[in-house]
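P.,

For your records, the input lines for the assembly:
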Amino acid sequence: MKLYTSHRAPNPRRVRWVMAEKGVEDVELVEVDIMVGEHKTPEYRARVGVPHVPALELDDGTTISESVAIGRYLESLYPEPNLFGRDAREQAVIEMWTRRCEFYLANPMMLNVRHSHPALAALEGTQMSEIADYNRLGAERFMRTLDRHLADHAFIAADRFTIADIVATVGLDFARLVKYRPSEDLTNLARWLGECRARPAATAGA
Amino acid sequence: MKLYTSHRAPNPRRVRWVMAEKGVEDVELVEVDIMVGEHKTPEYRARVGVPHVPALELDDGTTISESVAIGRYLESLYPEPNLFGRDAREQAVIEMWTRRCEFYLANPMMLNVRHSHPALAALEGTQMSEIADYNRLGAERFMRTLDRHLADHAFIAADRFTIADIVATVGLDFARLVKYRPSEDLTNLARWLGECRARPAATAGA
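Structure tokens returned:
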């Protein structure tokens, strides 16, 4: 298998982190330079269908994009440590939290960065401060929800580290590009974030 | 089990459609009136954790929000007809397409409606035409990708109807609130959309 990935980009980092937690070493990494548009070439689009990284090319030629779909597929091949849930009920709770962390934290912070960081103007086309602000405010509302939740939960979605923690940490780390830091009164969030960032697998793709 | 749902709202409709395809009849429906803020009451927030519909309350008291997580959980209890994939590879392809349809079609069209429909001003707080336009343009780019894909695929993610078709159809149907219609030259999209709308289960929650 081959993983098309981009160093430092947030969605590829989610997959690299999943692979590092599981010790996956037999997937070939193919670096795609999105800053010079390598994800927009006809060859890449023909292979993946959309101009996005990451993408996982299976040995039968099927190519999967979307970082969480790739992560779940890798879990079917490398089950331990479990990151997506051991039974249907736990899978549902983890998927619920993963989606909350994507839709209300990681995606808004990503849009904030894309619409406010000078170096990303070329990638984005038109940057709009209204979109940057609207998304930051939405993410900050969810950070307060998450901080209350983490007051009596060690991790976001289960009694152990899961894909939801990866998605949330990568989202907050990406926001460091615009020097964003969560409000200092969110002490539970800070405790959890420090623990996630300290994991050995956290440096993969970062 | 109980499903907290709102008539005509798009995300609850996804779950109602999944239930109708599978003939699920033993889930109690609890109507939540979001136009008067019933999803924001302390009781509802305490139960679900976030002010969102739909939410599925299990018999053990666990409550799952996020429509796609609920749908996947229901598939574990009611496997047929299969909507989420029969093996890991098919599940990955269906999840990939479902996410593409959410992120690049349904969510942008939902934001377009929420930021442009006069009746939704109270629900949204501040409506911004920049956000409405930006999201409509993004959705229209993906509709062209989808139209090309549907030229030689009967359905979006497999050789049969799946959750990806539900997510995309519900997204396009919600946009009818602002009288939006896909461009008439997208003939493959129109063929597929007509077939999805004609399914008996399509009226559930619509």
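Two observations worth noting. The two ends of chain B are 21 Å apart (CA to CA). Residues 15 and 69 of chain B are 10 Å apart (CA to CA).

Regards
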